Each structure stands twice: as C-alpha cells, then as structure tokens.
C-alpha cells in the first residue's frame, strides 16, 4: 500500500492507496506545532481506522509547501513506518515541464495538481485549487505548465471582513438562500459567496479569452470548492482528492522509470 501526504498551509491530509483504489483520507491542521512522536500517533490512528498495520505500508510520497514542519514529519515517517519517504521536488520525474518565469517558485502542490490533470486527460487544462489561496493553473496538451493566477482564498476573503472591521462578526462560509439578505450575517455570506462565484467565473473567462485554446478542461479541487462549484457552469469537474491521485500518478511514473534505469 502507498501512503500519500499533502502538506498545505492550512491542513495536512493523508490518503492510503491499495493499488489504484483510494481507501480513505485523514486531515489535521498544519499550523499546530507537533513533534515527530505526535505525527507518528496521528499516522498510526489513521491506519488503525482502516485496520491497516504499519507493515502493510510499502511506500510513502509527500508533497509539501511548508518546509518548517518537514523535519518532524520526515522523522515520524521513518520512525513509525521504517520508510524513507519520496518527496515531490527536484529530480522527481513528474512528466510536467514548468515554463514560467521562475520555475522554482511553483509549489509541489500545484505540480501534483497539474500532473493529475495532464496524465488523466491529455488535453489543455485549468486546475483550480480552492485552498488558503485559490490558484488557477494552466497546463497544455504537451504537459507544459505555462500560466497561473493566484488570488486570496474564500476563507481569507471572509476573514478580512471581520478582522478589518469593528463590528462585523465571523461567519460560516455557506451560500444564503438569497442574495437579497435582510440581516448582517446573511449579507456578509451573500457578499462573500456570490462575490467569489463571480470572481472565479471572471478569471476563468479571461484566461480562456487570452489563451485562445480550444477544448480546455476546467477542473477544481480543494475543500471549499464544494461551496463554489455547484453554482457555476464554468467548472467541468470537481474532485477533492486530486492531490492524492496526482501523487499516486507521480509515484507510479517514478517507480516505472526507476525500474527501467531512466532515473
């Protein structure tokens, strides 16, 4: 079995694959400082939930955009699973060529997302990740990551309202029944959610307009995507597990090339 770990700015998520089947996922907050022993306890609890022993995990692959926790997390993987994890980074054959002004600026999470899109669809794709920031990444039909748009995430947008004002409260991010709100909380929810729907649609529209590429697949992922995606026809598919599936694709590809002696 393969354990995939996605370390984001807000959450650390883990997924277990048995061959090509994603058996289950687990989520914990990134911002809490933890020792390697604490990470190990969480890993063991995740495996226990699905009645999987540590000996059944054959390999681990990690995508991370938070360097400061990696020493503890790597130590936990080695101590708990007796495995040296594969890290998404330089030297890993993802099948994606990054053709941006500064390829080193592109995070592992976004490489994983576009790798999934390219290897799954073999056509031009825009991958939208609704995370702490919302990213719109374009990969062409040849697997070249060319363009990106980065905007404040939905949660950051909502936080700005109550953190930067004296009397507006913190709100739950849900779509109200109507944009015609009759109280402050529903008014804030209407502004945040309906405003963000328009924000997403306009960015997609402008990207497609300037790309001048036909038949572009628009895919979304990220936990808050479930709030936006049902409200727009601009996004063709929503899959919250793209990060896990992208890492699995990269792992299989790297293993195959290693066996051929190409890595």
Going by CATH, the homologous superfamily of the largest domain would be: ATPase, nucleotide binding domain
**Number of folding domains?**
2
Run of helices and strands? EEEHEHEEHEEEHHEHEH
CATH topology of the largest domain: Nucleotidyltransferase, domain 5
Strand neighbour order, sheet with most strands: 6-9-8-7-10-11
Largest sheet: 6 strands, mixed
**From the alpha-carbon coordinates, what is the Rg to the nearest angstrom?**
20 Å
- Using the coordinates above, name the CATH class of the largest domain: Alpha Beta
> Quick one: how many beta strands?
11
> Percent range for helical residues?
25-40%
Low-confidence stretches: none
Termini separation comes to 22 Å
Name of the CATH architecture of the largest domain: 2-Layer Sandwich
Mean pLDDT across all amino acids: 93
Number of helices: 7
In one word, what is the shape?
globular
Q: Please indicate the percent range of residues in DSSP E strands (runs of 2 or more).
A: 15-25%
Structural class: alpha/beta
Describe this structure in words.
By secondary structure, this protein is an alpha/beta fold. It folds into two domains: 2-87, ATPase, nucleotide binding domain (Nucleotidyltransferase, domain 5, 2-Layer Sandwich); 97-248, ATPase, nucleotide binding domain (Nucleotidyltransferase, domain 5), CATH 3.30.420.40. The chain is 38% helix and 24% strand. It is built from seven helices and eleven strands. The chain has a six-stranded mixed β-sheet. α3 crosses α7 (242-260) and α4 crosses α5. The longest helix is centred in the C-terminal third of the chain and has 28 residues, at 184-211. The model has no long low-confidence stretch (mean pLDDT 93).
């Amino acid at each position: 079995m393969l354990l995939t770990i996605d370390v984001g700015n807000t959450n650390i998520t883990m997924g277990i694959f048995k061959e090509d089947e994603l058996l289950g996922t687990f989520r914990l907050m990134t911002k809490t400082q933890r020792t390697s022993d604490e990470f190990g306890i969480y890993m063991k609890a995740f495996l226990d939930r699905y009645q999987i022993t540590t000996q059944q995990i054959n390999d681990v692959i990690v995508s991370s955009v938070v360097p400061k926790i990696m020493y503890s997390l790597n130590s936990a993987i080695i101590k708990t699973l007796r495995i040296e994890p594969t890290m998404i980074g330089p030297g890993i054959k993802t099948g994606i060529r990054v053709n941006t002004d500064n390829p080193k600026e592109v995070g592992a999470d976004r490489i994983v997302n576009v790798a999934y899109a390219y290897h799954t669809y073999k056509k031009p794709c825009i991958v939208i990740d609704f995370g702490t920031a919302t990213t719109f990444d374009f990969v062409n039909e040849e697997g070249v990551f060319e363009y990106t748009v980065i905007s404040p995430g939905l949660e950051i947008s909502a936080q700005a309202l109550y953190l930067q004002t004296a009397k507006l409260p913190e709100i739950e991010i849900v779509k109200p029944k109507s944009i015609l709100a009759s109280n402050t909380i529903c008014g804030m929810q209407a502004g945040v959610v309906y405003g963000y729907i328009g924000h997403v649609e306009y960015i997609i529209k402008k990207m497609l307009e300037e790309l001048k590429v036909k038949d572009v697949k628009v895919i979304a992922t990220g936990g808050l995507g479930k709030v936006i995606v049902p409200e727009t026809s601009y996004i063709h598919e929503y899959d919250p597990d793209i990060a896990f599936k992208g890492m699995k694709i990269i792992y299989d590809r790297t293993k195959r090339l290693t066996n051929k002696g190409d890595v």
